[in-house]
Amino acid sequence: MVITKGGLVLGATALALSTVAVTGTGIHLSQSQAFFQESPKEIVDEVWQIINHQYVDTNFNQLDWQNVRQEYLGKPYNNKTEAYDAVREMLEKLGDPYTRFMNPEEFKNMQIDTSGELTGVGIQIAKDEESDRLIVIAPIEDTPAFEAGILAKDIIVKINDVDTKGMDVNDAVSLIRGKPGSSVSLTIKRSQGEVDYKIVRAKIKIHPVRSALKDTSIGKVGYIRLTQFSAQASREMRESIEDLEKQQVAGYVLDLRSNPGGLLYASIDIARMWLKEGAIVSTVDRSGENERKFANNNALTDKPLVILIDGGSASASEILSGALQDNQRAVLVGTQTFGKGLVQSVRSLGDGSGLAVTIAKYLTPSGRDINKEGIPPDYLVELAEEERKKLQGDRTLIGTPEDPQFTKAIQVLGKKIIADKNYLERASQK
After folding, report:
1. Which residues are part of the catalytic machinery?
2. Secondary structure of 12-63 in the HEC alphabet?
3. Contacts made by residues 288-294, CB under 8 angstroms, sequence distance 24+
């Protein structure tokens, strides 16, 4: 989950480790903090009021929200812990895993600058509604979780032998986090059964963009792998495209596999580097108001582009790939994306705790609502379990002929390059 410059959040995943940027005055504690500490019932009402005025679903999951307020304000609370438990129980009634409450410690942990070092294992998690457990959105590349073999869509059954059935994502984050050098055990469920992973926590520096010039059968290809939409991503992407343009590449492969998302403005900035004109994304709030973002005629290249996606491509990755697919700027190769299309606002509360509230959903330029659906590739290329393990075990194979999805991307890119050349030749003859 990442807060943008405007205070908006994409996807709102719980953070076992993710970059978060809280800007503006939103993180400052209210001067009435002492009052909230003395009157824990007030925090319950404050949360109710925010949901009442901002939550995207004005039907509140078919609840009588006024009755909910009466129910929870009618209860006695002897301390803040009881009030926090009541708030979480109240929010669960909305059936929205992305609208969540954070106690002061959890909220403080979320306030991590995207330019800094992170401490953890390197996964983003959310609640899996079907199993009532935790699901891995994606491991972040070059982190302990990635190196251990954790995969997107893994179900976390236990954390240090503690069953995650019904566990709040905030509690899971607290269990997974810890001091660098210490270890955490995750019991992971996949189709073939359960596997225990002992992962050593570490300080993690995130380098979101990696690029390389690939000499292929179709000529020089610019390969760019984007692992996260952090604050540095736009700058590094621009530098990579400009460098590859100088080397006169014939086309590009942009790799968004296992990219869990990040900053909304980064996805828009990067889309504008590839797209000369057209819509990029729109957000629709509870009143139906539609805010659209557009390309600004500042594309860095118009050369053919293929994007690699998979089930770990989420949130901002889906905004970028959806925008370029809908505008017929890029062809998508791989597997269906995660399907995380909600926008949140994060608010600090009177006692230093925090609340993430789903306030809108985003749509692709053609109006697709991809939440829980994902974006389908134009060319479906699934990896066998052995192929996936091979690539994750030796990352130097990613983006090489040993990578089946990359190989298909090169084939598709070759056809686009030829088609573009034929089009230019016909245009020059007119």
Report:
1. 315, 326, 340
2. CCEECCCCCCCCHHHHCCCCCHHHHHHCCHHHHHHHHHHHHHHCCCCCCCCC
3. 293/268
* Tokens, residue 336: 């269906």
Q: How far apart are CA 329 and CA 336, in angstroms?
A: 18
- Contact in structure between 13 and 20 (CB atoms under 8 Å): no
The structure's pTM equals 0.73
Longest dimension (CA), the chain: 82
Q: How many whole angstroms separate alpha carbon 264 and alpha carbon 281?
A: 10
CA distance 222 to 245: 8
Residue 419's H or E segment, with its range, is helix 404-429
Cα–Cα distance for residue pair 79/1, rounded to 1 Å: 29
Q: Exposed (0-12), middle (13-18) or buried (19+): which is 25, by Cβ within 10 Å?
A: exposed
Question: What ranges do the domains of the chain cover?
Answer: 117-204, 209-341+358-426
Q: Name the DSSP letter for residue 198.
A: E
Q: What is the pLDDT of residues 58-106, one digit of tens each?
A: 999 999 999 999 999 999 999 999 999 999 999 999 999 889 999 988 8
CA atoms within 13 A on the CB side of 320: 36
Q: What's the CATH superfamily of 117-204?
A: PDZ domain (2.30.42.10)
Contact present, 121 and 184 (Cβ < 8 Å): yes
CATH 3.40.190.10 fits 209-341+358-426, yes or no: no
* pLDDT in the model for residue 299: 98
338 half-sphere exposure, CB direction, 13 A CA radius = 32
- Residue 212 sits at the vertex; the CA angle it makes with 377 and 334, to the nearest 5 degrees, is 15
Task: Mention every residue, 6+ apart, whose C-beta is less than 8 A from residue 193.
Answer: none
Each residue of 215-271: pLDDT tens digit? 999 999 999 999 988 888 999 999 999 999 999 999 999 999 999 888 888 999 999
Radius of gyration of the chain (CA): 22
Q: Mark 222-252 as b/e (b = at least 16 C-beta within 10 Å).
A: bbbbbbbbbbbbbebbeebbeebeeeebbbb
In terms of residues, how long is the chain? 430
Rounded Cα distance between 358 and 127, Å, is 15
